[in-house]
Write a structure and sequence with these properties.
heterotrimer; A alpha+beta (451); B alpha/beta (341); C alpha/beta (325); B: 341 residues; alpha/beta; Rossmann fold; 13 helices; 8 strands; C: Rossmann fold
Chain lengths: 451, 341, 325
């Protein structure tokens, strides 16, 4: 049992632009045994709710930061006694117990943890008083104050459980809406069906919500702006900071090339012909794979500019720009994209989009992208002038695949063309490197069988 | 004279057979109750057999009977098979009420036996209504309603005596005055204990009868029913009798003395009839032995049948709460009572 | 009164008359149904047409004549027993519960009781506590009975015949405030198995019956003026309850106000509320609300009585509350 001792679990950096985060939820308690890779907390980065995993195996000694508290990246969040974990099911399979209030349960077979002083949530005395009066666990209250702090209104709104009508609960389940993030418009703050429908519309589920919306006259308007709206603003702020930093610090250069997609599309049609509909590939899969392989071939564009030096990525993790329907942008990573088969890449992309929009991404997906791809072709855009996501050094943009006149072997023909652009950090590479990268992309798209 | 003696012999034999069947059946019931084959409340008629035997002796097969919760005897002598009664007490599907009634709710509509009513006085209005239906439909039959001295304190008796007399309905009120309303002696619950006289106050023809003498009961009942059939309206017989056993299966009998019970047992209606028949030579020993043997065989068979009879499936718990869906409007349903008659 | 319309009272009388003409086994029995013409004049003129045997005055002996009605039904007749009011039916409760409702089951299916018992129910006429009960909810508690509450002239006219065809006992509760109501009543039987939607809306389900129906409909009119459209359900059959119609409505409106002139505790409204929670819980977008009679014996003074029993304003207020909560 050598090497046993407490390790700190710190607020992870879940994006280059992330300076602080809020512990949205603890999924473990002091005394719980955890294994490396177990999801132990949910962190709110203002861009998304991210499930974060432990990098240690051991027993949770104490939680240093309460749910709802916002702290800078790197702040210790918990102490983990790193000892070999007894064989037991993952903590995820047990319902999370309310944090803080009860005496920590020692894990069976685990050493008795030192009693940790309950970490006081960052709240005002009146809020703590109110919570105590109502028997509320502050850690379970969703904060809507500055930096996610629990404010008086939150306590007043919160009951032991969100007050929601049975129909609202059912709709929330069906529409994938989190009741804890809705402000009810009922007289006593109860969440009603219309509140859920409205939230679903804001979350980008307007179609289902509309189908379920009744023709009832509007209920009395909510006095407060829903939490969802505020959340959108926080994300906007985060994007603003990151992009401003990029434009301020990164000397961009931009290159573009037009690629004939005839070969790629013909190959795709041929391949899809034998596949059932759900497994068919979209052109986006080819573009991603081509980008990934090109980044592998031109590694100077695949990595980070940190402390005035280029740090290459360990593999090609493609950041995929995904717009959220409620507004905002998120760029989770498709891991090790260069080595993945096209079908796998396609499935990964679908999964990533779905989970992004449901607000359930893994921490690594948020941090590890080595190069970003943005594909606005679906929206009709022909040409993307991107902005590099720091600390990455390159962003590849794809426009719409359009039939256009095109000279082939001295004759004019009509070909499906796509404009590929590269925005890159001139500190890390020069235009020559960028040109080489685009040439590889073009070559691969002309020889899809290599993808 | 010879003819009359012969007829009389037949009547005595019939009365004796009726009473013995009741007595032996109930004695077996005590055993079975003790063995937990029969459960619930079980009220025994032992000591009162002359009343059921005598009154029913006067009835024709078409006549109807409404009874009380102490009704095994009435049911048996009205022809409800011992097997169906015993199976009912066993709670079996083959019981006359398919195991839903038990000891207190013996019904057999095919024999005009309308229960089996466990609310004291509760059967009286039914009897009045059955008689009213007979009047409407021109049926020449008598409805006998058995009830106890306890029921005479219930409003339903007084309402019904008045109503039946008012409408001159063909009802025979057969009041089994066994001296106790459960544990309360007659004199402790009635200011005026001459029950026949009280009934007469409603304009009902009424008189008291020695309820320990089967022959006297039979004769009184014959006179009453004859008069009722002739259109003289309801009659009332106060049948003075005594139950030898507890109100229900067992009770501490604090309300009466052992000496009183022993005194009444000396008037046992079965012993009395046997003694009388032996004295006149109507009942040789062999005849009595044969009679006992036949009765025992009937009861053995009822018990054997009930033992092996299946239970009603629990899935059928809710059947008979309501009839199957009512027929479409405009059609005329036929009730079971009519189908049977 | 315009041509083709009739009153609830006349409709009921016509129904009795028709039944007695059609079926010789039908007779009417009760206190003052004959020479007096019925306490509420429902049977006025029937004695003259059918004679004293079939329109039969009884002594004030509720247990005896209700029980005699049961006995006569057992004996093959189709009696209509009139109990003057529900208040006096308590004197016959033993017969209704211990005999009428149980004989079929207790006899293992041998004894049907094809009996109809009619009685007046309800408050609202300054008759004070002993003449103002609404106990139909009690009776609806009892298996083996069918409980009807005609709220319209059409139902007053059409429910009796099918009730007489039912092989089991049927209790018909006529709210005392309805006898003078006029409306159109086509001859011919009506359904006695289900509820009826008296008005269709999308925002709230108002559930009532009998004497509360008019109030529920008035409340729906008032609410429509505020842009609130109510489904108004007339239960019509209080036992067995028509769950399907109730749940269908709740499935559309997601909000419910139950109007019941019975006392709240252990009432029919409580039963309906519980069933909605059991069967349509995930359709509810607001707590179920009830407008019931205050838990007091009904007082005599007009203003007190009005305060005690469900009123249109209370139904409107309850609806607004449900829509806001």
């Amino acid at each position: 049992m050598t090497g046993a001792g407490p390790s700190e679990f710190r607020m992870p950096s879940l994006g280059a632009d992330m300076e602080s985060g809020t512990v949205a939820e603890w999924l473990v308690q002091p005394g719980d045994s955890i294994r490396k890779g177990d999801i132990i907390a949910v962190i709110d980065t203002d861009k998304a709710l991210i499930e974060v995993e432990s990098f240690h195996t051991g027993v949770v000694d104490s939680l240093l930061v309460s749910a709802g508290e916002r702290v800078p990246v790197g702040t210790p969040l918990a102490l983990v006694t790193t000892a070999p974990a007894p064989a037991r099911p993952s903590t995820r399979e047990r319902p999370p117990a309310p944090a803080g209030k009860e005496h920590p349960r020692p894990a069976p077979g685990a050493p008795e943890p030192a009693p940790a002083p309950p970490s006081p949530p960052v709240t005002s005395p009146i809020v703590r008083h109110l919570a105590e009066q109502r028997g509320l666990d502050l850690a379970s209250v969703h904060g809507t104050g500055p930096a996610g702090r629990v404010i008086r209104a939150d306590v007043e709104r919160a009951q032991a459980r969100a007050k929601a009508s049975p129909l609202a609960r059912k709709l929330a389940r069906e529409l994938g809406v989190d009741l804890a993030r809705i402000t009810g418009t009922g007289r006593t703050g109860a969440i009603r069906a219309d509140d859920v429908r409205a939230a679903a519309v804001r979350q980008g589920k307007p179609r289902e919500a509309a189908v379920r919306a009744s023709a009832r006259p509007a209920a009395p308007a909510a006095a407060e702006r829903p939490a969802q709206e505020r959340r959108g603003e926080a994300m906007r702020q985060a994007i603003a900071q990151a992009m401003a930093r990029s434009k301020r610090e990164i000397p961009h250069y931009y290159l573009a090339t037009t690629v004939d997609m005839s070969a790629a599309l013909a190959w795709l049609r041929q391949r899809n012909r034998d596949l059932p509909v759900p497994q068919r590939l979209l052109p986006a899969a080819l573009l991603l794979k081509a980008t990934a392989l090109a980044a592998k071939e031109v590694p100077r564009l695949n990595g980070f500019w940190i402390d005035d030096a280029f740090v290459p990525g360990d593999a090609v993790h493609l950041g995929v720009a995904i717009s959220l329907k409620g507004g905002g942008l998120i760029t989770p990573a498709l891991h090790a994209a260069a080595g993945r088969e096209l079908g796998d890449l396609m499935a990964g992309l679908k999964d990533l989009v779905a989970r992004s929009r449901a607000g359930r991404l893994r921490a690594t997906e948020m941090t590890e992208a080595t190069i970003t791809v943005t594909n606005l072709g679906d929206l009709g855009v022909e040409l993307v002038h991107g902005i590099v996501h720091p600390p990455q050094v390159a962003l590849v943009g794809f426009g719409k695949i359009l039939d256009r006149p095109w000279a082939v072997d001295g004759l004019l023909g009509v070909r499906p063309l796509v404009t590929v652009t590269l925005a890159a950090d001139h500190r890390a590479t020069d235009g020559f490197t960028g040109a080489r990268f685009l040439a590889v992309v073009e070559r691969l798209l002309n020889h899809p069988e290599e993808l | 004279m010879a003819r009359k003696n012969k007829a009389r012999t037949t009547l005595n034999h019939e009365l004796l057979r009726k009473m013995l069947r009741i007595r032996r059946f109930e004695e077996r019931c005590v055993e079975l109750y003790s063995a937990e084959k029969i459960r619930g409340f079980m009220h025994l008629y032992i000591g009162e057999e002359a009343v059921a035997a005598g009154v029913c002796q006067a009835l024709s097969p078409d006549d109807t009977v409404v009874s009380t919760y102490r009704e095994h005897g009435h049911a048996l002598v009205r022809g409800v098979p011992a097997t169906a009664i015993m199976a009912e007490m066993y709670g079996k599907a083959a019981g006359c009420s398919r195991g839903r009634g038990g000891s207190m709710h013996i019904f057999d509509v095919t024999r005009g036996f309308y229960g089996g009513n466990a609310i004291v006085g509760g059967g009286l209005p039914l009897a009045v209504g059955l008689a009213l239906a007979d009047r409407f439909q021109g049926r020449d039959r008598v409805t006998v309603c058995f009830f106890g001295d306890g029921a005479m304190a219930e409003g339903e008796f007084h309402e019904c005596a008045n109503l039946a007399a008012l409408w001159r309905l063909p009802v025979l009120f057969a009041c089994e005055n066994n001296q106790y309303a459960m544990g309360t002696a007659l004199a402790k619950s009635h200011a005026m204990t001459d029950l026949a006289l009280r009934a007469a106050g409603y304009g009902v023809t009424a008189w008291p009868v020695d309820g320990m003498d089967a022959l006297a009961v039979a004769e009184a009942a014959a006179r009453a029913t004859e008069s009722i059939r002739a259109g003289a309206g309801p009659h009332f017989l106060e049948l003075r009798t005594y139950r030898f056993r507890a109100h229900s299966m067992y009770d501490p009998e604090r309300y009466r003395s052992k000496a009183e019970v022993e005194q009444w047992k000396k008037c046992d209606p079965i012993d009395a009839l046997i003694a009388r028949m032996k004295a006149t030579g109507e009942l040789p020993d062999d005849d009595l032995a044969l009679l006992e043997k036949e009765v025992a065989a009937e009861i053995d068979q009822a018990v054997a049948f009930s033992e092996q009879a299946p239970l009603e499936p629990v899935e059928d718990l809710a059947t008979f709460v309501c009839s199957p869906a009512p027929p479409p409007s405009g059609t005329t349903p036929v009730s079971r009572a009519e189908a049977a008659s | 009164m315009t041509e083709g319309t009739t009153t609830y009272r006349e409709a009921m009388r016509e129904a009795i008359r028709e039944a007695m003409r059609r079926d010789e086994r039908v007779f009417l029995m009760g206190e003052d149904v004959g020479a007096y013409g019925g306490c509420f004049a429902v049977s006025l003129g029937l004695l003259e047409e059918f004679g004293p045997e079939r329109v039969r005055d009884t002594p004030l002996s509720e247990a005896a004549f209700v029980g005699a009605g049961i006995g006569a039904a057992l004996g093959g007749m189709r009696p209509i027993v009139e109990i003057m009011t529900v208040n006096f039916s308590l004197l016959a409760l033993d017969q209704i519960l211990n005999n009428a409702a149980t004989l079929l089951h207790m006899s293992g299916g041998q004894l049907n009781v094809p009996l109809v018992i009619r009685m007046t129910t309800g408050a609202g006429r300054q008759l004070a506590a002993q003449h103002s009960h609404s106990l139909e909810g009690w009776y609806a508690h009892i298996p083996g009975l069918r409980i009807l509450a005609p709220a319209t002239v059409e139902d007053a006219r059409g429910m009796l015949w099918p009730a007489l065809q039912d092989p089991d006992p049927v209790l018909i509760f006529e709210h005392g405030s309805l006898y003078n109501m006029s409306g159109v009543a086509r001859p011919g039987p009506v359904d006695i198995t289900g509820a009826a939607l008296r008005r269709s809306g999308t925002d709230i389900s108002l559930i009532g019956y009998g004497g509360t129906m008019g109030k529920a409909l008035s409340a729906a009119d008032a609410l429509a003026g505020e842009g609130i459209e109510a489904d108004v359900i007339d239960l019509r059959v209080l036992r067995p309850l028509d769950d399907a119609t109730i749940m269908e409505s709740v499935g559309r409106t997601h909000r419910v106000v139950i109007v019941d002139e019975g006392w709240r505790s252990g009432s029919l409204s409580a039963e309906i509320g519980a069933r909605i929670v059991e069967q349509a819980f995930y359709q509810l977008d607001a707590p179920v609300a009830r407008v019931c009679t205050a838990e007091v014996p009904i007082p005599y003074a007009r203003h007190l009585e009005e305060a005690a029993i469900p009123q249109v304003s209370a139904i409107v207020a309850a609806t607004r509350e449900v829509l806001a909560s």
